[in-house]
Amino acid sequence: MTTIKKILFVLISLFIIVAIALFFYFYVQKGEGTKEVTDNQDNLPSPSGKNAGIVDGETGKQEKIVFISNEKVISPTIKDGKINFFSQTNGELFEINLDGSNLQKIPATSLTDLIKIIWSPDNDKVVGIFKENEQIKKYFFDYKNNKSISLSQNLRWVTWSPDSNKIAYQYIDEIKGINVISVSEPDGSNWKNIFNTRIEDLIINWPLEDKISIHPKPSGHAPGMIALINPITEFYEIVLSNIFGLSINWSSKGDKFIYSNTDSDGKNLKLYLWNEKNKTSKELDFITLPEKCTFDQDGLNIFCAIPQKISLNAVWPDDYYMGIISTKDDLYKINLETNEKIKIIASGDDQYYDAKELMISPNQDYLIFINKRDGKLYSVRF
Fold this sequence. Notes:
This protein is mainly beta and about 375 residues long. The protein folds into two domains: about 50-105 and about 290-380, no CATH class; about 115-245, Neuraminidase, CATH 2.120.10. It has helices spanning about 5-30, 320, and strands spanning about 50-55, 60-65, 75-80, 80-85, 95, 105, 115-120, 125-130, 135-140, 145-150, 155-160, 165-175, 180-185, 190-195, 200-210, 210-215, 225-230, 235-245, 250, 255-260, 270-275, 280-285, 295, 300-305, 330-335, 340-345, 355-360, 365-370, 375-380. The strands form seven sheets. It has a five-stranded antiparallel beta sheet, with no helix packed on it. The chain is globular and about 55 Å long.
């Protein structure tokens, strides 16, 4: 090989090596953090250590996030300034401070086969949902008076009245052809039917004493509506209708709610704020699912887990509910009047949060949530 050929061979080899290195840097390493959320990413590593510091890239402020639980939890709530939650493993009830300190087991019967707990607003009573022998069963528990009663298997969705003294539910008896919305005492006694319907799997909320809201199970393939029923007069009105992908989340004062909307294919997800007093709605300038948000006590601010990317190919909210996709969320405090957004915590490449069941502490200094990707409970002080 001549000297010129040797030089050309070396130059060409160097060029190929540099080209491969540049391709790896820009298209492999750089692309890892920008992949659109189009599949389930539960195989990402969990955050290590009890406390993990997250730096907000916009403000440079370091926030502190704390593991509240080392195992999967069910139905957390805030009671008397502390967090109560059930263990998914054995149904035991625990209490812990907002900052993750002083974990205590509350003396109570372990609730095996527990699926979900529906807390009363005063947190003294619950309706427990269990799966026993492949059947779904519901029980009323009064912890204050040490009382437990089995509820009818014909009860579907159950919710509490604002004063914690009654429950509302859908009652379906397929043999007798009965499908009604009813109210009763928490143990199922003194019941009263207030609304007849043909729709199954209704979701019920009781935001105000004189207003019970109902809407069908959300789907991007089916139109939904929201009806409000007065449990005393039985008068009802439809406030929204023919909305695909409809899911709602009421404020604690019952004067407003946020709701989602898609096109008829479950695409083009949007979020709106409904003002019950004025019967008006406005589109919000961020996108998430209503159940990824919680209002503060006054309803002036809302705390939301907002996905960094929204899949354009998914059917919302169906694919998210079925676990086909997950989201990588940043958590924000949003002023509903000024639209000011304050980032509380951000997901990173190694630590990310698919947040659900958000709660804000009474002093609005802690945000509590379950990370759907690992089922554990987290607390963020801000």
